[in-house]
Amino acid sequence: MLPRLGVAAVIxxxxxxxxxxxxxxxxxxxEHFVIADTGSSDGSYAYLRELxxxxxxxxxxxxxxxxxxxxxxxxxSLLAACPTYLDIVAFIDADEFLLPLxxxxxxxxxxxxxxxxxxxxxxxxxAWLGKIFSDPDVSALALNSACFGSSGERFRGDGxxxxxxxxxxxxxFRYNRLYKxxxxxxxxxxxxxxxxxxLTAGRYVNSKGAPLQLAKEQPGVSRRVCWQGARIxxxxxxxxxxxxxxxxxxxxxxxxxxxxxxxxxxxYFSRFDRNGRECNAALVWAGRVHQQSLSLPSSSAxxxxxxxPRQSRWRKTLASSLSWWRRVRYTPMRAQTAPLASPITxxxxxxxxxxxxxxxxRGVLLQASLSVxxxxxxxxxxxxxxxxxxxxxxxxxxxxxxxxxxxxxDDVGGNDFGDNDFADHDSGCLDDTVHFRIELPIRSGNVxxxxxxxxxxxxxxxxxxxxxxxxxxxVQELRASALIGKQGWLFLDQDTNAxxxxxxxxxxxxxxxxxxxxxxAEQLVSLSHQVNAKVLMVxxxxxxxxxxxxxxxxxxxxSPADQVVxxxxxxxxLYPETLLKQMGDDAYHVTDTHWTQQGAMHVTCEVAxxxxxxxxxxxxHWFAEDQYKVVRLRxxxxxxxxxxxxxxxxxxxxxxxxQLKRYDNGLANFGRVIVWENSDAVLDQCxxxxxxxxxxxxxxxxxxxxxxxxxxxxxxxxxxxxxxSVAAQVVLVQTNARFMVEAPQVTWSLQDTILDKxxxxxxxxxxxxxxxxxxxxxxxxxxxxMDKWNDCLPAGWFSA
Length: 800
Prior knowledge:
Elements: E1 5-11, H1 15-28, E2 32-37, H2 44-53, E3 57-60, H3 71-81, E4 88-91, E5 96-100, H4 124-132, E6 138-148, H5 161-164, E7 167-168, E8 179-183, E9 188-191, E10 197-199, E11 203-205, E12 214-215, E13 218-222, E14 230-235, H6 240-250, H7 262-272, E15 277-278, H8 286-294, H9 313-329, E16 333-337, E17 344-351, E18 364-372, H10 382-386, E19 389-395, E20 398-403, E21 406-407, E22 433-440, E23 445-455, E24 458-469, E25 481-484, E26 490-493, H11 499-504, E27 507-509, H12 511-531, E28 534-540, H13 543-546, H14 560-567, E29 573-574, H15 577-581, H16 597-610, H17 616-622, E30 628-633, H18 635-638, E31 647-652, E32 661-664, E33 673-677, E34 683-691, H19 699-705, E35 706-713, H20 720-726, E36 730-736, H21 750-759, H22 763-768, H23 778-784, H24 787-791
Parallel strand pairs: 1-2, 1-4, 2-3, 6-11, 6-14, 28-29, 28-36, 34-35, 34-36
Antiparallel strand pairs: 4-8, 5-14, 6-8, 7-15, 9-10, 12-13, 16-24, 17-18, 18-22, 19-20, 19-23, 20-27, 21-22, 23-24, 25-26, 30-31, 32-33, 33-35
């Protein structure tokens, strides 16, 4: 049977590290945290208090008078506060990570674990600990350290600690002989120091299960380093910037008023800045750590500036009272529970509450438990138990389906683990309850919750509850932001299409939504027959999908775009995901959501081939002599960060499509109309493009293929009267994969869009877009069939 594992720590001013540290240990199987805060002033205490409301943390106030903040007193407090349902507890620090390793070999200096994230053993750490503690005489386990250096970083970089620092000391480094203890709390009298526990019964063992041998009888120092099954990754220094700041913060309000001297700081940093071996054993957990972070409050919301004045007790009391009074007057959430249907026996939601919600980076946090009749300890039920999910719906036709965080064993009652065996570690958990702690990427609206249960016929959805999240004017409105991935690649986040949740595979479309896409395709094909035109829909795959190896979060199996593409006819839809993946890093910009001009060129050639206009070789030959130059691009993602990020990219330098532009109404995004004419084009045809932002990168190539190109920014929405009026031989509809949560409309009106966009335009917006505008004569507009949509622009639109 698997032991229930906890982690205990003493912290001070560790806010920057806490969210990753908690998320990592949740990912490897830790159930609960017991933490003593010895006087943080950076917001750590407030963040831990928020985690304690979720039931993740037992927050300890160290006792001991004036010495209450010292390590011995703090560890005594931690021991006293350990919940009785925890069988074993690891006592570590906030810069230490309890890392599972291969139990079949002593990894030592060859531990560059390359296990793919999706094959990491579930509950592997708890299973291994269960074997160690299956001997009832074992009361404590000593896990040796592995000291990680700065990896040459001077300043704090992007990403997780386990991603940034992958160089460590050799195994024989003397400080690796230091160990931390995993103990049965009931058998510990006290801690002699922060590393070694004094036992009332039983014995100490190392990670091989052999009796612990101390170096020169020094408690906390082993004779030899043993890295087998698990170890403590110790990130003692990190970057130079983080080391110096951390040393200063730990001395703030110190009872000894300690001062960081240059000599002390340099000596400590030099001692632990060991980078002799490359080690990726922790790095493979990064994807799961990012996922666990989604279910935690964002630590950045609790940060207190370093130079912020300390509040007096009466100010804190007053602020707390005002906050309480505001919560009494304002009800942020209402709930309507549905009658429970078999086999659901219980549904309990702990967050959000009617009086309070916990905000996350993208929305609100939902924590609940679900009991299902018939989920037993039987091994054949384990897969069924893991298949139970929670479906959340607040947008028509779109469903968010979340897996459970952990399964059973989280009630606060005791169990029989105390001194019994853990040998039966494959049997799973005892109860019939699954637990959810998830981020709902929505701040206000109606959310319908349903249980998703596996059945022989497929999946069964049972309604649980309907939540009404009320808008709060005091909460800052969410704005699109950028995720920083590996090697500085940026990805879209906090957008209205929930791109991150599409990437994770949590979002799916219902049959009705997919049927709307099929109807859209049928209507468009029928329209193309009426006007005798070739039609093709071009879907720009998401950057997250093509460059997934750079994304910080693991990619899910199926996205909404995959569902739609699978339902559409092959000859109607071009989805060039494979084509772009073959291009490697040249397919997308590092700091922009869109494909590069080279990526757009290859897609345009594929368009020509799919439409039967040329072979792929012929199309590529049209652009064989194009020349590119390297430029620095900030992009739409780089602009979302402060400071702005820029990266090198290839830009076409031998051709400028703007020289062929004959008309541009200058509207921003939806409703923009551009016309090009090229007498030297390969084909004497007209191409109508009703597209989105990714179409812009295709302009330099389309205008050299077709004699006339007319672009309308509509994201795939179609104005039927426009199609008839233009009478193009080729009609391209283009959309981006992240927009595919909703089907475009064939009843869309370009005229109405232009009128809406220009009706309330300010003088500032009018002036900003003026440089893009280019008028055309009435005869030209009539010849193109575009006069109707030019006439609806306000008088003087093309005047300064």
